[in-house]
């Protein structure tokens, strides 16, 4: 498996495991890396928004990259979004030196006009170097930057080193269709589309032309099966599988506490030792944990992966 | 059924039906009113955000109030949120004169601090009159005003005429629990909580203390059954019903095109003649319509209400 | 004087005078209309953001238009920005029927991408009618919509009925230069540029190519002299006059309380009876009023218009 | 001079000088440090928003702290605002170890409710350590977090290590008056208030109770004289001095290009070698530079400090 414009399947958005005292949990990092791999993922994305990247010190970021890259046999993408290009360049060059397959870059939240967005990525790639393969992250709900289809197309056309779109516009199904239509018409070169947004529309996204998912839902093994079913044209089976998981997917996708749910599920599955987050971060109440338990118990009736 | 602090069940957020040419579709307004009533709703809320209120001329708003109030045998709430208090007062007084049971008021989007929000509602109620029963709408995702539990409690304590909270904070389950806990502790007087957000968390919200739903999902008949099941303590049955509908609920809850989905479902159910919206408004693509059809067909296998 | 693509000078942004009890002060409306005219203004803009338009009932808006248009011998522009196109159309058509010279339209705050903005004005003009002359308002600080030079150019090219840009981007001097350069290069048709932002950059804006000001500063008689001095090439004299007023201009331009300052100055000049605003609105503290008095007293030493 | 709750005068917001190629200009850092000191400043604040802090790599930040602290004989405050508490703590502890007098902390832009803001500073101080003296930065225009008077008072009451408020709310004169009134009434302990916002209201802020300025205007020598005049009760003289500088202060306070103006002025004064900024950053056009030159030439007629 390589990171390229034809990448498909599931790239796991990795959480960063901490112990209760807030220190990095390196044993869990290894287990998590193995877990993603054994779940059939085609890649792993680390140090993204859900990886609590801004809460890490620079040396910790490098240590995590080194550990995951050494252990993984699948491509590792490193989130390098930063308020300034000096830090972005530094992290990107270090990541590549440490063996990462590429980096992921999101627009900085202050950008507004089409020109500002296109210019920003021009400057970012000038800083990072056009030899570094990268993923364009399109996530308006959190980043507050809205990229039209035309802007995405322009960025991709301007930068051959952009191999993939992490698509998490919302609503976003039409955007996938329009980008794929532009390619069909010969107006846009090939690139991979993996979808985020917690997987909330992963029943329809592959049908629209997405190549898979890049998200951190606690059941990556289900996500890989879902993408395969969809690719095999087994529409009803794909939707059946998706629908069984949707109540939990929906619960996990709540802004702010979503990461707490995700870590709790991974802990219950035995992958990470603790569901602790570094501050600032929201914890689950007793009631919320019981609700997640109930959802998992209900899911277990339809998917044995949840029977733990 | 009355509009009071102990209101429960489902208040339908009514869409405003237009003909293809953009004119008001009065025949559909009657059918829609009957449909909500026959679905077991305890009330109807008109002229809300999803009722395209800002796209109506003042005379049209009055005509709609008159028509719905005359036909309905359940309480009618009228959305009166407006940029200025003169228009808010005028619409609220007219609504009450026309027989409405109460009004619904959302905070104006520029409010930021706790004080600003509390003061705003003080001024709003001074304008509208403290004899007008009202619903407090808490909808940060769209209105961009975040009300803490303390602020909601203060507004409710300040204004005895506030009978109900339309709860659509997201994530919002903890907020319900905390408000109900304040009441249990004797720190807050009684008020009804009905939940919005398209019903996305209506499996857990009643368990947390909500009295029901105030939303416009195309299957209000399912919503009323769901609330009844939950009230009867039939937890698994309630979740089974909810889960069957969640794929469609989720599809309908997309910001921007959600209203198009909702109107399309109501049209397919034969309730309204056209799914036209006034501009600005997003239409469904052919593919999106086919996706909704597919979701309805799948739903029909589990709920005969969808077999039309 | 006519409203056209070659309009120049000062269009006064009219405040709406209220009596202490919040009712419309029609006597002051007449005095204010005369005052703007006698100050040498080329036009008057009513029902803008600083005219407390959203706090008026529809019938009041019409009454104000009627009164000002009947009395003024200079063009009257009417602000018609509204959340929906039905209300916008209705007010615009009524305004033209009542004798207004044109209307002013600002983008709705939710717009983000270039396409969304261009489309919005397309729909607005379709609603209002392409026979209605209009002013494009570009005011990102308050409206939160950022229009690039390219977007402004596209809107102007798409709509021959757009005769003027109300420029109040901030910072915005380069935008004027770039738009004028596009015209020089033959890429953009003629249109008038009048500047807002309280006049904070009116020393340089005409030098960059602006045709004048559209703002409501309490000394419109100074603004007209300033534009004339600048047009006559008397650079130092223009800056001397501007600099004398800048401390007060700056004080008046404070978001939120700027209107209170403006009304207070107009009241002290004897133009309006009361500086009351309708709610919501911020009042000046005793200290703030004393500060304005001090600024006026200092100004009177350099400009006799302030010696009242 | 010490950093304490009774600090007064001017704390210069230091720019970070770069050479044309973007590398740190250490010679200019020394000259700039001397310049601020020789201008009568009581302190220097480094690595703030206008110090391009997010564009620096961690090692560079430390190098700058070391250099400025070693050279300065006045207190040095270090901006440590960061998206996560790990980086904030790390920079704060390093800064104190290197000899800084304290740190400055701004709220993270996502905060909305009063509780969220108060909690954030609680967590920040827990991370940084309550032995580190700090400045609370209140800058809603850029940070988009609005702190009411009550919230500021609560943070100051909660944290004895908070010695100073950097006040740059806008409009903000009433906030100073209210905080000082709370102290007079015995409801709030002493703390210093220095004002930012580019100095736009520094004629009135000391009269309201501010102890001075914390801003980076290119004439810190004027700022110190202004604060002294005001403290000596020479009101007219203070306003005369302020008014002479206001046209340039106003020009420099433009969001986005303000830093370019500031660096250009410091370069013209011979303090820094280049006005280069790291990307992203806006450069001055030829016309803009000529406008600044013109403003300086006009200023030189009234203040000989500008005659260079």
What does this structure look like?
Four copies of one chain form a homotetramer. In chain A, helix 1 (26-38) packs across helix 2 (58-71), helix 4 (114-128) packs parallel to helix 6 and helix 10 runs antiparallel to helix 12 (286-300). Chain A is 46% helix and 12% strand. Chain A has helices at 26-38, 58-71, 85-97, 114-128, 140-143, 149-158, 173-184, 205-208, 220-231, 235-252, 258-268, 286-300, and strands spanning 9-13, 43-46, 76-79, 102-105, 134-138, 162-167, 192-195, 212-215. In chain A, 56% of the residues are buried. Chain A contains twelve helices and eight strands. The first copy, chain A, has one domain: TIM Barrel (Alpha-Beta Barrel), CATH 3.20.20.70. Chain A is an alpha/beta fold. The longest helix of chain A has 18 residues, at 235-252. The radius of gyration of chain A is 18 Å and the shape is globular. The model of chain A has no long low-confidence stretch (mean pLDDT 96). In chain A, strands 1-2-3-4-5-6-7-8 form an eight-stranded parallel β-barrel, surrounded by four helices. At the A-B interface, helix 7, helix 10 and helix 12 of A face helix 7, helix 10 and helix 12 of B.
């Amino acid at each position: 498996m390589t990171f390229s414009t034809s990448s498909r399947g599931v790239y796991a958005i990795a959480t960063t495991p901490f112990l209760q005292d807030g220190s990095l949990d390196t044993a869990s990092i290894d287990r998590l890396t193995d877990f993603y791999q054994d779940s059939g993922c085609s890649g792993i994305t680390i140090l993204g928004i859900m990886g609590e990247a801004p809460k890490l010190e620079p040396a910790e970021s490098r240590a995590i990259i080194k550990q995951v890259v050494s252990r993984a046999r699948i491509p590792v993408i490193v989130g390098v979004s930063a308020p300034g290009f000096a830090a972005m360049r530094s992290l990107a060059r270090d990541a590549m030196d440490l063996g990462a397959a590429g980096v992921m870059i999101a627009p900085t939240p202050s950008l507004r006009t089409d020109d500002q967005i296109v210019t920003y990525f021009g400057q970012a790639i000038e800083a990072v170097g056009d030899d570094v393969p990268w993923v364009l992250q399109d996530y308006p709900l959190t980043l507050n930057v809205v990229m039209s289809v035309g802007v995405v197309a322009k960025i991709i056309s301007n930068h051959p080193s952009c191999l993939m779109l992490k698509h998490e516009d919302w609503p976003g199904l039409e955007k996938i269709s329009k980008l794929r239509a532009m390619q069909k018409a010969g107006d846009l070169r090939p690139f991979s589309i993996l979808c985020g947004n917690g997987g909330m529309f992963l029943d329809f996204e592959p049908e629209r032309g997405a190549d898979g998912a890049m998200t951190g839902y606690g059941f990556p093994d289900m996500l890989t099966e879902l993408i395969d079913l969809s690719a095999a044209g087994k529409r009803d089976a794909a939707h059946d599988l998706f629908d069984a998981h949707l109540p939990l997917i929906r619960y996990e996708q709540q802004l702010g506490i979503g990461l707490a749910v995700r870590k709790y599920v991974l802990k219950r599955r035995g992958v990470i030792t603790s569901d602790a987050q570094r501050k600032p971060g929201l914890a689950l109440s007793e009631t919320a944990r019981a609700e997640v338990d109930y959802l998992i118990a209900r899911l277990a009736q339809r998917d044995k992966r949840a029977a733990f």
